[in-house]
Amino acid sequence: MINLLDIITSFTGVTTILLTLVLLLVIGYVISMQERSGIPPGPSYWPIVGNMFDMRGKRVGKRHKYYAELQEKYGDIFRIYFGNQLLVVLNDFESIEEAFVKQKDLFSSRPADKLWGIKQAVKDGKGVIWASGQEWKDARRMTVRALRDLGVGKTTLEDRIKEEANIVLDYITAREGKPFVVHDILMKATTNVISTVVFGKRYDYTDPDFLRIIQVIDMSFKSDMSFFTPVHRFPMLRFIPFLASKLLKVRNAFIKVKTFIVKHIEEHKKAFDQNDIKDFIDIHLDTCGKEGDSSVLSENNAKRVILDLFVAGSDTTATTLDWALLFMILHLDVQKKCQEEIASVVGDSRMIGWSDKSKLPYNEATLLEVQRIASIVPMAIPHTTEKDAVVKGFLIPQGSLVYANLYACHLDSRYWKEPLQFKPERFLDDTGTVSKQAAATLIPFSTGPRICAGEPLARMEIFLFFTNLLQRFSFSTSGREKPSTDGICGVSISTPEYAVVATPR
Ligand code: HEM
């Protein structure tokens, strides 16, 4: 028979265990909420999940607006928690300069191993976007050299961009003045420019392999899925059926594109001629043959760099052009001035070339203003700190995720008068020339050693597409209602969908 003493003893045992558990949980909670002194201020957060739930509901796709609220409340440098990972956002030009330029050795690494999805994606090679240290320096040197040698400023690449612009012009002509959404065709055109750079050939816009590349770029860029999905911090979530099927779809699309890239590398190997270097793959094969060249990439890493160029170079450029056309239909006076400048400098008997740029300052100022007001890549790509660092007196501990809020920088009234107004003139001096001083705090490509590796190519593409479109067509809205400029924030900020009418000039 169980006596009373045994019951009391076992009850006390269970109670002790329960009390110990509760105590451990409380201690765990208190420890997890402890912050090192000196780190930037920020909102309150939950244990384990941090501020992940702050981005629900109407904040989905509005990360830039959420950060603006936090900047208002906590100042130019604030912190949030992505799970239990500290994430610091630098919101003004000075802080970004102090970190990315003045302390470049501490701030130039990428947090590939802190984001589960990225870690999986770059298992075979980190390419240029996700590499750090010497591996990144070598990949970056090779990429920048290749983009330069393939000729920004040389006729071949300029001709290829113009050829692609002509295809877009034909497409627009075929719309016969009916309203259409322009992003799709711009995306195909800019993806084909990258295809020319890496594979040495363009694709028909209906080619299934080509369309798959675009699908992969879309998956990488559109939506908060890319850097902010909880699965990056809680990989167990990948077993939830809905997420599992989504992740599988992304994985399969990436595998197919990689297979496609391998096919191209193999074909290039067979046809390789050292005296006739035509594209990125040829440059890669050429460096492989040169002993002691430190920028030589392994084949897996070359594959990844190629993927990086598509991912980083297509959507960004297409989205910039998309915003440019949206602002042109909202500001017909600016559009008219751009066209008048083109008409007086180039006329309409030939296409506009790269060498015309210095003679078209109003067009250039308009594109700078588009890049300022739209901030296409609003938070750049995450950096991480190699060691503890201090910015504007705040401690940024080793291993923090660090975001440069380029969007906030470009709308900062301390640098830009009436920042919400679209005014290309702000970039022109009294003589009508583009003012370097006015553009000094414009950083759409970020700043420091991690600055966009494709900046020269991007600038050339944006200029050639934009001016050649305006030379041939006038753009207007399809209805009476003005399209909104309330962008949707993923890795890039895309325009809300709008239809445009193009009238031949
Ligand atoms: C208007 C178009 C573009 C914009 C606004 C843009 C913007 C950016 C930004 C903000 C970054 C992140 C920098 C950082 O982390 O601090 C970046 C990185 C990068 N971009 Fe671009 N980009 C554009 C076009 C291109 C093009 C055309 C290419 C190449 C074909 C390219 C290749 C890259 C690469 C490889 C990186 C990674 C650099 C590194 O990690 O070292 N981008 N870009």
Low-confidence parts lasting 5 or more residues at pLDDT below 50? none
CATH superfamily: Cytochrome P450
Report, as a whole number of angstroms, the end-to-end distance.
102 Å
CATH C-level category: Mainly Alpha
- CATH topology tier name: Cytochrome p450
Number of DSSP E strands: 10
Tell me the overall shape. Answer: globular
One letter per element, helices H and strands E, the order comes to HHEEHHHHHHHHHHHHHEEEEHHEEEE
Q: CATH architecture, please?
A: Orthogonal Bundle
Which strand order spans the largest sheet, edge to edge or round the barrel? 1-2-6-3
Number of helices: 17
The chain-level mean pLDDT equals 90
Protein name: Steroid 21-hydroxylase
GO cellular component, one term: endoplasmic reticulum membrane
Transmembrane segments: 7-31
EC number: 1.14.14.16
Q: Could you describe the 3D structure shown?
A:
The protein has one domain (35-504): Cytochrome p450 (Orthogonal Bundle). It is 51% helix and 8% strand. The protein is built from 17 helices and 10 strands. The protein has helices at 4-33, 63-74, 93-101, 104-107, 116-121, 133-149, 155-174, 183-199, 208-221, 225-228, 241-271, 280-288, 299-330, 332-345, 361-374, 406-410, 455-472; strands at 77-82, 85-90, 383-384, 389-391, 394-396, 401-404, 473-477, 488-489, 493-494, 500-504. The strands form 4 sheets. Strands 1-2-6-3 form a 4-stranded mixed beta sheet. A two-stranded antiparallel ribbon has the order 4-5. β4 and β5 (394-396) form a beta hairpin. The longest helix has 32 residues, at 299-330. The protein is globular and about 105 Å long. Protoporphyrin IX containing FE (HEM) is lined by residues 128-129, 140, 143, 194, 308-309, 312-313, 316-317, 320, 376-377, 380-381, 404, 444-446, 450-454, 457-458, 462.
